[in-house]
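dumping the sequnces here before i forget
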Amino acid sequence: MRRRPRGEHIIRLDGVGLRYGLGPEVLQDISFALPAGSFHFLTGPSGAGKSSLLRLMYLGLRPTRGRVMLFDRDIAQTKRYELPALRRRIGVVFQDFRLLDHLSALDNVALPLRVRGVKESEVQKHVPELLGWVGLADHLNAKPSTLSGGQKQRVAIARAVIGRPDLLLADEPTGNVDDHIAMRLLHLFEELNKLGTTIVIATHNEGLVQRFAHHKRLHLEHGTVSKVEE
Amino acid sequence: MLRRRSDLPLKGDATSRFLPWLVALMVYLSAVAVAGTFVLAGLVSRWDHDVAGTLTVQVAPVPGEAGEMLTEDRVRQAVELLRRTPGVKAARALDKQQLIALLEPWLGNADVVRDLPLPRLVDVSVDPDSRLDVAELAERLSDTVPGASLDDHRVWLSRLINLSLTTQWVAIGIVVVIGGVTSATVVYATRTGMAVHKGVIEVLHLIGAHDDYIARQFADRAFSLGFSGGLLGLALAVPTLGAIGMAARRIEGGFLPSLSLPVTGWVVIGLLPLIAAVLAMYTARLTVHGTLARMP
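..and the predicted 3d for all of it:
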């Protein structure tokens, strides 16, 4: 997998604004750059625009103004057929997990590998290993509807990290798990970060941010960045 | 193709349950239309082949006691004139027995026909390479032999062929319309399926699936549904065509040439389920691509 030297910017936003339809701007004049290999907590009160900013970053939305540079590519200038290759370099943990209910935990986690055309023998080797690591070795064939909130969240995290992404974006990834599991998941993210993955975790769990205070913070207030540590 | 793994839960879709039945109906109708086209094409070719290069001379019967002798004399004159005409290969007068045999399928009882004042017929074979002036021959014949007239089959044959060709084009048009209706239904079913599975599609899209990865899953499902529906339609069409064939053989009589479906016709009909499945597959694929192109 391509890894860029630490320090180079993996994502840069310049004067970005976002509105839904004809509504007011939910994000205004967002400008920041995240260096490769950095670890940021995206903080801010509910409604500050954390999820919208993450959606822009994982290419789930296009900004209504401004420029988004991802992996040195200007997204506005990038052809549509080139976007899947960029998306494959991003792992996303959605706030509502977005697991596919008709697939087992194993098949959900295997999705990013399968869309890349990874051999089934590789899939069957790596996916159970990772699910075991997040404590779900006994739930490989369980459907999401039979899993608890915390278990679903771990499946969602496993799906986000299985492809060893360059950029991991997580929206409240510890919201449904107890402290012990939360710490374990944060350590998993730190391990990934050590291997070169840039991490952005949206959270309003101030206690968790304090416990990992050695990581940087990107703070949103009223749809604009009020603080960014680079 | 039918066994490829799918990430989308398309099997349980209510919208795709009606598709095989619709394709079955479409394939059934197409099979009947295709069979009609092939049978008509064969019929036209047989008629054309059978009557090309032939003319018929008709000599009206002379009434009265000596009428039969006079009529016979006029027939002989007509045959002689025809045989002398350049371009005429043969001219043969049909005797009364042959005439009665020709009319029997239409008028029935030979005894009744025997008493009718029937015109006499002369069957004429023409060299197809000669430039025989039929109009001039007709005029000469009616001037020389009283009551004689020349019937050029090409006039009524060309009308019949035109009618058959028009019918064939109508049948082809019907098949095209059926194809269009099938495609429109697949577009509707695919769009509905995409709306139902919007969340799954969005997840696949966001984790980096190419549009074709998603489109292929819809296309595979459409192929599978189209093919099973097509086979059902074919299974229903074959006995129908057999029944029509049997009914046609009963009324063939002396007028219609054999109404049989050629091997090519059966092959095309046999391929209809596959054609319907491929049509459904490509339609679904294009529909998904068109819809996904609107996603960011």
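The longest strand of chain B covers residues 120-126.
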